[in-house]
Structures
1.
Amino acid sequence: MKRAKFLGAGALVMMMAGGAYAKTDIKVGMQLEPPHLDPTSAAAGAIDSVLYSNVFEGLTRFGADGSINPGLAQSWEISEDGLTYRFKLAEGVTFHDGTTMDAEDVKFSLDRARAEDSANAQKALYAGITAVDVVDPMTVQLTLAEPNGSMLFNLAWGDAVIVAPESIENIKQAPVGTGAFKFTNWVQGDSIMLEKNAAYWGTPAALDKVTFKFISDPTAAFAAVMAEDVDVFTGYPAPENIPQFEADARFQVIVGNTEGETILSTNNKMPPFDNVKVREALAHAIDRQAIIDGAMFGLGTPIGTHFAPHNPDYVDLTANSAYDPELAKKLLAEAGFADGFKTTLKLPPPSYARRGGEIIAAQLRAVGIETEISNLEWAQWLEQVFKGKDFGLTIVSHTEPMDIGIYARPDYYFQYDDAAFQDMNTMLEGEADPAKRSELLGKMQRKISEDFVNGYLFQLTVPTIAKAGVVGLWENAPTQATDLTAVHWK
């Protein structure tokens, strides 16, 4: 009897050790839930956070270091004049429903993205494509109206992932991609579940099951991590807790850069923000460091233009809009608003917006600008602000990589319309010489800073809290994604 008990205990220890070693599921906490699951028809970064690379793939893809790597295209050739891109597709790729992925699907996806009635949030990136031709089932050719040195980069965005006509009708609720994981279930308001794609064409995922758990409240996020109800919390929303996690051997803290320019976005066509002096006053009323300290507990890099500070072409223009409330009052008086004015401040769910909004509202009040704060869910924000342009001010982090080109779109939600900037952007798209591109990017940064298009706040930092045994998470976020394709337990 004693011997049997001893063997049972030993077997239990081995099972426990083996179980820990063989752990193949993971729970990932996130603050924001996607409004739907089609990355090709919405501006919500939360969609890419769940699906980019995991479920959907493009011809090219971003690496963890921001590099552009082969995706569904295993190779490509670019003509000498830069007008023709011929992509050779990877062999043996199937969608999660078992249908074959081929050149016809690429044509369908890119034609849909650039169509006149396209709902693609980055439609402008693909507008220069004049034709998508199927050369053979494994070869597709893009023809451009003019050279675009950013095309491989643009094709790596989540907005350019390859989808199939057979499954497009239900993509918002039941996405079907080609990635290492396939979608299994969405409990709205709670979680999204993925499972390993056993028929994946590339390097298979180490994980068998993934659960994305949506926890919007920072206090609840802290409780979930501490109770180990989640294994990872990406974009952790309460940076004040980070020292506590750093002191706890159960956890690892990963703090990385993002492409997220966090801005006090301003409706340039809505009076009085159509007056550059009012926008300049707004810029000088903002104390960036107070926002970084108060909303982000010191995490974040001040910016003075819409460009990532870690980019080698970044120009530090923070002095152009230095905190100077007396100058702000003077500029308001010169613009005819000596007694100030009232406007709306519509805030999406992220902590940087909700917490930062309270601080900014107080700073603006100090110079005579009263804001009516509205806390919106993402679907409301997309409808009212992004699509409807029904706002005075909002706070949002633009997490798309290298996206200064949005300022060349007069119909973009902040409605900046400047011919000189548009010309510079057109020149940039056609310029391949690195030195000339750097010069143009510097001019573009200065232009929007001097026009005070938006209030430039800080570059968003992404803190991730994970259990000590999780390996393979991205440190930085070259695009908004929680890429789990190489994640495993040690």
2.
Amino acid sequence: MGAQILDGKVMSAELRAEIAQRVAALKERGVTPGLAVILVGNDPASEIYVRNKGKGCEETGMYSRTINLPEQTSQAELESEIEKLNADPAIHGILVQLPMPKHLDEQAALAKILPEKDVDGFHLINAGHMMTGTEGVIACTPRGALYMIKSTGIDLNGKEAVVIGRSNIVGKPMAMLLLRENCTVTICHSRTKDLVEHTRRADILVAAVGKAGFVTADMVKPGAVVIDVGINRVDGKVCGDVDFEHVKEKASWITPVPGGVGKMTITMLLDNTVEAAERNLNRDR
């Protein structure tokens, strides 16, 4: 029969319509949610991603500002730009596009962003909120992936969830979110022994390793929900970490690449920015 497709384009469009309504409500109260993106250098993939963020802001009625810095920008110059945005009341969300040039300290730069303006959810304070299950900004990609999982209507209580990948951006926060949904969570990585033994038990399988076609059909439990976070380029084409054509015949639900989690990531960034504006307005009341 084959898996049902979790269409990120459709879900994203629905959510952006709701976001646009919230933006309109904020504007009636004199506030336009503002997102600032700092891009250091001219990485082509990053430039495309930043343009898509700008389009998302325009589509939902938000204010967008992109700060392009040259490749040779110093740490002090980068952090000075962040400080300016921290102090700017028109900016509710700040994002430093990763990866940055190797001479820059990413963690030090991210730590300069005010936690309440950290709409990527990478600040250590927000990571701590994630770990403890308290209120804070949730990283966009895992948040989008969880939204897609929950859209299936499957009861997650007690389900076996396996996350392949342990990055601070996706793997670790994804595991924490699934744990908060009462899943039994296993994190697998490059040193995991008998990887297939773990993945075949997974009711929910999340692939975030950055290797094209890494997850094959023999690794998947029949009826599993398969979430592909990978974005790879092979022969000029974009593909995920999952062998989509074969795995879709075994899974119950699956995300495509492109058109899956990637679409949701930017939408969750927009949502986090609107939430930041709403919180700021409520604090000022």
